């Protein structure tokens, strides 16, 4: 846990260095009394740091270091929610070839409506309160891994006058709960079981037994980590997995519904619309069109 915390702290520090503009530096040199030539003046630590970053210019050299952080994808957006920077890993996960394809794009172009709305609400909260969101667990849409869960950390971006101009952060795969210790291991066992058996019948009592928790305790752990109940998590996992088939295959909607744990096409369509705001057919048509652009 200490290693992960250290890695997150390094990533957060690097993100601040990447996005914040260096303040104008004070005069770096002056002539000595004998006029023998320039000598280095003594500056406060922050001026020394700002002068160095100013020499780096706008090349965003720290981005090369971000790309080497394992399982960490960075991003930055303006106040309107348009991407201004996206790490290579996130570009690949979304299904694009180059960062340029996604610059100026909103989350609504990438994610289903219910996911995009949740992301935007978090972005607005960070910009409004100027407080970071740390380790928010969420299901993020990926073109080939739609049912994947990720941990997101976000901070506000400030200009040289201290005004909020956007939000920045990084995303990592979710590997367990946020509390650490045995509770994480118990939750991971349940999540792994759901991911493996989501297409079949899942009983909450059985999941609680896998975790060696009561049903009430299991529900509380899911609410704390995922902001939803175990049953909602199961439905969300099924819908995310079905999203893959809608995009990557030409299977009829009724067949996809049965293969992903829904009683019939009607039940699938009802749940899909409730969670995404779209019917499966509309989702398939619009997302394929966006992907092919």
CATH level-4 homologous superfamily of the largest domain: PAS domain
- Low-confidence stretches are 21-33, 143-147
**Rg value:** 23 Å
* Overall geometry: globular
Integer tally of domains: 2
* Discrete helix count: 13
Structural class: alpha+beta
The level 1 CATH classification of the largest domain is: Alpha Beta
Measured between the Cα atoms of the first and last residue, the distance is 42 Å
How large a portion of the residues is in β-strands, by DSSP E?
5-15%
Which range best describes the helical content: under 10%, 10-25%, 25-40%, 40-55%, 55-70% or over 70%?
A: 40-55%
Give the biggest sheet.
5 strands, antiparallel
Description:
The structure is a single chain. With 293 residues, the protein is α+β, with helices and mostly antiparallel strands. The protein has 2 domains: 2-36 and 44-173, PAS domain (Beta-Lactamase); 181-292, Homeodomain-like (Arc Repressor Mutant, subunit A), CATH 1.10.10.60. Helix content is 52%, strand content 15%. It is built from 13 helices and 7 strands. It has helices spanning 2-19, 45-56, 62-66, 88-94, 107-110, 113-129, 181-197, 204-211, 215-226, 230-248, 253-259, 265-276, 280-292, and strands spanning 29-31, 38-40, 73-78, 83-86, 133-139, 149-158, 164-173. The strands form 2 sheets. Strands 4-3-7-6-5 form a 5-stranded antiparallel sheet, sandwiched between helices. The chain has a two-stranded antiparallel ribbon with strand order 1-2. A hairpin with a 6-residue loop joins strand 1 (29-31) and strand 2. Helix 7 packs across helix 8 (204-211). It starts with a helix and ends with a helix. Residues 21-33 and 143-147 have low confidence and may be disordered.
